[in-house]
Protein: Cyanuric acid amidohydrolase
Amino acid sequence: MKRRAIVHRLPMAGPDDASALVAEIEAGRIDPAGLRAVLGKTEGNGCVNDFTRGYAVQSLRLALAPYLSDDVLGALPMVMSGGTEGGLSPHWIVLEEGEGPDGPPALAFAASLTASLPPQAIGRMAQVQAVRDATRDAMRKAGITYAADVHFVQIKCPLLTSERIAAAGGDVATTDTLKSMGLSRGASALGVALALGEVAPEQLSDAVIGQDWSLWSARASCSAGVELTACEVVVMGQSADWAGDLRIGHAVMRDAIDAGSVADLLDLVEPGFRAQLTPPSQTQVLAVLAKTEASPDGMIRGARHVMLEDSDLSATRHARGFTGGLLAGLTGFTELFVSGGAEHQGPSGGGPCAMIYKTS
Amino acid sequence: MKRRAIVHRLPMAGPDDASALVAEIEAGRIDPAGLRAVLGKTEGNGCVNDFTRGYAVQSLRLALAPYLSDDVLGALPMVMSGGTEGGLSPHWIVLEEGEGPDGPPALAFAASLTASLPPQAIGRMAQVQAVRDATRDAMRKAGITYAADVHFVQIKCPLLTSERIAAAGGDVATTDTLKSMGLSRGASALGVALALGEVAPEQLSDAVIGQDWSLWSARASCSAGVELTACEVVVMGQSADWAGDLRIGHAVMRDAIDAGSVADLLDLVEPGFRAQLTPPSQTQVLAVLAKTEASPDGMIRGARHVMLEDSDLSATRHARGFTGGLLAGLTGFTELFVSGGAEHQGPSGGGPCAMIYKTS
Amino acid sequence: MKRRAIVHRLPMAGPDDASALVAEIEAGRIDPAGLRAVLGKTEGNGCVNDFTRGYAVQSLRLALAPYLSDDVLGALPMVMSGGTEGGLSPHWIVLEEGEGPDGPPALAFAASLTASLPPQAIGRMAQVQAVRDATRDAMRKAGITYAADVHFVQIKCPLLTSERIAAAGGDVATTDTLKSMGLSRGASALGVALALGEVAPEQLSDAVIGQDWSLWSARASCSAGVELTACEVVVMGQSADWAGDLRIGHAVMRDAIDAGSVADLLDLVEPGFRAQLTPPSQTQVLAVLAKTEASPDGMIRGARHVMLEDSDLSATRHARGFTGGLLAGLTGFTELFVSGGAEHQGPSGGGPCAMIYKTS
Amino acid sequence: MKRRAIVHRLPMAGPDDASALVAEIEAGRIDPAGLRAVLGKTEGNGCVNDFTRGYAVQSLRLALAPYLSDDVLGALPMVMSGGTEGGLSPHWIVLEEGEGPDGPPALAFAASLTASLPPQAIGRMAQVQAVRDATRDAMRKAGITYAADVHFVQIKCPLLTSERIAAAGGDVATTDTLKSMGLSRGASALGVALALGEVAPEQLSDAVIGQDWSLWSARASCSAGVELTACEVVVMGQSADWAGDLRIGHAVMRDAIDAGSVADLLDLVEPGFRAQLTPPSQTQVLAVLAKTEASPDGMIRGARHVMLEDSDLSATRHARGFTGGLLAGLTGFTELFVSGGAEHQGPSGGGPCAMIYKTS
Structure:
């Protein structure tokens, strides 16, 4: 018998709605003991005062409390990412581990948690190193030996609030709370890049975080939220310790409209598909996880965008809706885990995109 | 010699920037006397208090004043549509008429203006009828005999403000200023549908406007703005009176993620293209004009969207960014004239999309 | 021994923070058994997708669960109002009932809950009648015999969402979710007005709700939220059944800048105070509860306001921040329960304002 | 004969509406040759992409073009400040200079313009020094000898956009466009403080700008906008070179709810007034000019505010609406020139407030 990954994508009627997950458990289609992580795409603004993330976590805990001990529940990673702009649809992605007969290497995952980070560490090398170690720890737990077998690392990391800034006596990477989200995401991404050998230790310092966009990970996806002070790291990849019919692949969007790279990724389920996956192929796709950002130079292929100048609507909200439209067009559905703010996650203006899929 | 259409797509650094148009005139690449309409995609919120539309019109008038008499300038249709969410790029689309040698039927266009509408008419049958007549008048001017040869009708129409509502003594279709934009767009669209035979007169009444979504035009694109009180109607199609290398086609998106219909349209320049037009094909596309909306039932292919529940961000802004992403993915560029609020413009949740292109 | 009201105003670090309440309980300063209602001013947008209200309720229930049986907890009214724009500060107002020695009539309160309202009832006479009955029931429970002794009726009422509209098959007062909040507040207010004899039954019908602003209650304060389907009614007034050092008074702001009426109310704690209560008087004020709205005619004392034209920022958010500034200037503190959307609550453009205070 | 100040406060129906000014000119109540500066409070978001400021300037130029030569018009300071949140009302404040009989010292004003600032200078000492010099130059022109006679210095200054940042090759004080508004306002304020002797030269350096809030001017009011690259400085004070019935005074709000300091200022027209100026006193007040900001420590008198955590609504919009409410309550009208972002303008969390008034 081998380890076996089972992935469920479930709808969410609001941040307080985990009823679809409970229904699956009650119907015997999910074994609570096998839960390894729950990701949620919630409908808040995805920025500093997005309380849908914390509300979803609290609601999820309440829903799972009848099935899991306090200790197990407390250790279960719950990675909420706010923002379903445009036609994106709030949903849960549930990662379950079971066991099954032998077979070729298959989807593998595991999680690790850093220690709580003091405000002084956020957006700085201390965070980079903590995430590097947690990434390696999660790989070990997932039975993934080689960095090349890691396809996505989903991280939930903290941000700075007015209170935390005051608590640190001002010794913080930034006093701008919204900006702290970007620095925290960036530091986390560089931690992944370090763990996976995508950047070398000597290239990194506090000064490059949020500055030198030539340094990036092709597989990091980081989301900051006010509701935690440590970094939760969920590594997804493939491993010979696991078998079953699930696989994962990833692509890197070179810029915000790089449909070609995404199409190459979707070819894994429908080679040579045209414009949009056909319905049968759509059912093979269990999860799409992508990062997006407004290109810092204010341009997309030579044409000006306004995302960074818009003081009514944050750039991450702009970017999620836009990339959501592109991905929905190609995949044919809207339950897409598109997360905003791709600092050091893919090249400047672009971002990584992963797909969990069933072999046909 | 026949009439000949020339279309220019030019960048805009802000709503006050018509410098690219002036540069083309100064370089002799645009003859001001040939100008028939100028469309502008500006970077405001596209809603009630979007002053970028009026600012762009005023700036455009100032820029063209040295080249055109007051009368000619006053009659030149200037159709501004606010909102470049996501990666969309503010730009001008300039419709110029020249003449040239004979050839097969080609792109044809002309404009017509309704009388000023009193507040009482907005969103009601009086507006429907005014737009119907203006559409027919513009067809005549463009030399388009058959409704089937019309591919896009771009309309700029008024909305209700607190002042206008008060002036009407409350006898208005709605007292909600944002909602009045939707009713005005809807009434305009039904006027086009009536002119083109897409709906029958007996199907229409005040009661169906903004209510019965089974009634729609496949070729109307309506944009409401605070800066005018009449409806400006620009008809685009094909006519044997015109020749040259430009053509127009249109598609109807069935829902917000109907990439297939758009791909069929783009086939006109690159048959069987994959995921995104190649760069040579991109240069053949002179303009993409599309309408989009949040589906009123709150769903896209069975999955919930949040656009109508988001009180921080209007549904039209959500929709433009999302559809902008889908179209940018397929076309490979971001100067796309995506306009929000597709009431009676295409099926519920979908919208029309037109392309002006060069024959290769 | 008589009934005795005790009121606590406590800070809230976020919608999930009921720690100040727990601390008071643990310190023996609040007896959980005496809790009669908890009001919360939370920091969401106060509109349709304000999840801070539901999150606060869920967090409050979790915090109180160790102290109260499920039944008691389930029946405890929790009235959350979203929106702390400007310098307003999120806070709890806890209404506790104890007992004490005899004395003159004093602050009295009690709550009542309507049955769950179907979507069809919201914003219509069915809601008006349900709230009328609940108001009378709460008066009875509070021992308030005469309508004149009622000074404030705080109501939490439901709104329409896309799902609920669909469930009603379209038989709803409006299909605009944001607008449904206004209609629900308005219907609730007219229910109070009916119960208190401020309007006569024959003046009311579906048609006047949200239309005839000459009908209003001077003591209703209604807040709509997505997290409930019934109306929670908390009546506050004075009664000879109660004694102690707490009193309540109310004023009606005639328009958005009617500082004079508020000053007259504040005179109850510091007669003839100038511009701002002095610090000792500030400590006498336990709670300020006010309603506010953008005047529907777009004017304040003859000058135009832009609240109804602003498509980036809802009018209720504008109004709360503005009235919050006026009240904070007069009182000298920012924990003010200012709630937006004063339809039928006070005259058009104005709103009621109540103060709970200690006799000096 | 002496110089004599005439001040007009005029309504604005939109950023394109200078009709009230034209009407005054046509009626002979304003002599265009006497215009010295025009201030405008426009209804945009007051942030980076607020085009109402530029639109108002362009509209004002068009309106005045028939009356003034290009040179005179080009040199006339037009200081637009965006943002009329809450019940604030868009309006013009027109500063005109005439002459009249001798009398005691009276309101005096004059303007000066710095050279165009390169992006590298914005938010740095080069801007501080340019503003210091322009302030002194404007004092000279206004006939104000002593710093103590200066009561308000209204400045319009540039900001950084993505284009300008790129043009500077990244050598800028910040790459965050919204943040650049704050740094530009702060540097301008310190320039005024330097000119008026409120801070000493040795206290200033690039490092203190936007950091050391103990350094501030009690009379600077700075507004940043995308539509200019130099700083326009309008000094207002009192001078024996001027006579007439107009005076100016100023106060400093110590925090966001310091109604007492404002009341002391309003005493100049109605000593000992209560809560709100009476209507006759209101007519004596020709202009109220104030600055406001969200206190950087996230607190107002010990209670938390949420302005800095709100990613949907910028802190300057919050602050303007809130302070607008406080000032409207005290003055009794809403045409108040409240400008957001008070960096180095008054103490942290507070701001200066000036009043131009008629002697009774």
Notes: Chain B touches chain C at residues 45, 47-50, 161-163, 166, 175-179, 296-298, 304, 306, 308-312, 314 (CB under 8 Å). Residues 177-195 of chain B form the longest helix (19 residues). Chain B is about 30% helix and 25% strand. The mean pLDDT of chain B is 96.
